[in-house]
Amino acid sequence: MKKILKTLSMAVAMFALCSCAGLTGPRHYELTDKDNGRTLHLDRGDTFTVTLVSNPTTGYQWKFGTPPYDETVMILRGDKYIRPEEQLCGAPGKRSLSFLAEGSGRTGLRLIYVRPWEKTQPPAKEYNLMVIVKDGTEDEQKRGPVMRRNSKGELVPDRKRSVLE
């Protein structure tokens, strides 16, 4: 009887371990300016938010740089400005951009901090991120070259997926 109970309890424990392993679900990552230049490895369905200091009272805005990111790999889910806690005139707030890992592949995210009317001036700041999304159902090495559409809807070769390459 003890042997049967021991075997049964071990089977229940193994079932619980195996069923919990599949329940982790999508992950979420919070990124800041300290993550500039980082490579982010995601699974399909994961999300991430980039939060950067922003002060629109100076005329500067965070804009998407070129080349645009690949919307078949990740999509923008939210864009909001977070007001400063201090009520001081000119105090900086934060810009928060949230993304969803949509499909497998790799793409670069380039954000530039510019004044829109200063077309010939270089950006005051830049933020670059490499995003690699794995689907889990396909071998990334055997996929081969493909064409894709960028955020402007243009058809471009797969080799241009990254701004950091």
Describe the protein's architecture and organization.
The chain has 165 residues and is mostly beta strands. 12% of the residues lie in helices and 39% in strands. It has 1 helix and 10 strands; from the N terminus they run αββββββββββ. The chain has a 4-stranded mixed β-sheet, with no helix packed on it. A 4-stranded mixed β-sheet has the order 2-8-7-4, with no helix packed on it. A hairpin with a 5-residue loop joins strand 9 and strand 10. The longest helix has 20 residues, at 2-21. The radius of gyration is 22 Å and the shape is globular.
Relevant terms:
12% helix, globular, 4-stranded mixed sheet, 165 residues, disordered C terminus, mainly beta, 1 helix
